[in-house]
Amino acid sequence: MSNDLTKLESELLGEIAGAGDLAAIEAVRVASLGKKGRVSELMSKLGSLPNEEKKAFGQAVNILKAKVTDALDARKAVLETAALDARLKTERADVTLPVRMGPQAEGRIHPVSQVLDEVIEIFADMGFAVAEGPDIETDEMNFDKLNIPAEHPARQDHDTFYFNPREDGSRLLLRTHTSPVQIRTMVSSKPPIRIIAPGRVYRCDSDQTHTPMFHQVEGLVIDETTNMGHLKWVLQEFCKAFFEVDEVKMRFRASHFPFTEPSMEVDIGAEAIGKPGQWLEILGCGMVHPNVLRNCGLDPEKYQGFAFGVGLDRLTMLKYGIPDLRAFFAGDLKWLRHYGFNMLDVPTMGGGLSS
Ligand code: PHE
Q: How far is the CA of 176 from the centre of ligand 1 (A)?
């Protein structure tokens, strides 16, 4: 019996020494120590031996098993080192290659989305929070509460898209401006209020500088002391930060909105879109009308503030020299590749708005 074991031992150790790679060493392990391996099978013979032989045989098999295990481990370590050496010899990494961007190098951020991020950055830096409201509004929110009663001529100016009347005669509409978010904010939160509200607005209108859907950013500040000087300062600082210049050609014109008093419109020099000497209107603004405050449950004797509504698409045209507004919404990939932004160009006040 012990002769058999000696023979098996030298056979197995020979196989281990001869294993040329990790797969071969694994095969030897299974064939020897695996459940049905040759060493394991010896153990199952133990039961059939006469009692006096059991102990010696068991010990001998265990010694064999330990030797085989050690030999396997040692050989495996040698083979692993050799395999790693071989891999390192064939693999080469050129650490000077530029970072590969993958699919995000292909995609483009729409200029309006980029400009919205820029605008949010600037106003966030001045302490404004971002508010939102729905695109589908009621007459009440879009007009009545903003001091534009049913018979008011301003309703005509807005070229409103209406939905069919409901059972009770009321009609929903696509908001014609972001000003209803002023109302929603004043109704749902207490002053001091300092928000901007970006979003889509809709008017039945179309030419080179008008599209039926466009974007505005509403601004609203309400507290007990904010005055028109603050309004002009905020808008001037905004324009300087946005256009990334020390001085901006701005023109404040007296105007009229039912929800502000006094009201102004602001124009910017249109050089950037190839119209030197001409002006492009970018926003309306003014001090919030006492009736509007009252409609929102705020006491006009106590509270005051300003509001503004900026045309986001107009800002985009001016800053990035894009002449035709209609192209913004045509879904032309060639246009987007030309005017769009890389997704990693995230505007920040600290790092620079545009790169
Ligand atoms: N809602 C106005 C418009 O769309 C702009 C505006 C907003 C004017 C806030 C004054 C105050 O034309």
A: 10
Q: Which element (helix H / strand E) includes 9?
A: helix 2-18
Could you please state the CATH topology (level 3) that the domain comprising 110-342 is classified under: BirA Bifunctional Protein; domain 2 (3.30.930)
Instruction: Calculate the average pLDDT of the chain.
Output: 90
Query: What is the reported pTM?
Result: 0.71
Domain ranges of the chain: 2-90, 110-342
- Note if the bond before 103 is cis, omega within 30 degrees: no
pLDDT tens for 28-56 read 999 898 888 888 888 888 788 888 888 88
Q: Are 301 and 208 in contact, with CB atoms under 8 Å apart?
A: no
CA 124 to centroid of ligand 1, rounded, Å:
21
Alpha helices in 95-201 (DSSP H): 111-125, 139-142, 154-157, 180-188
The answer, yes or no, to whether any atom of ligand 1 lies below 6 A from the CB of 184, is no
DSSP classification of residue 191: S
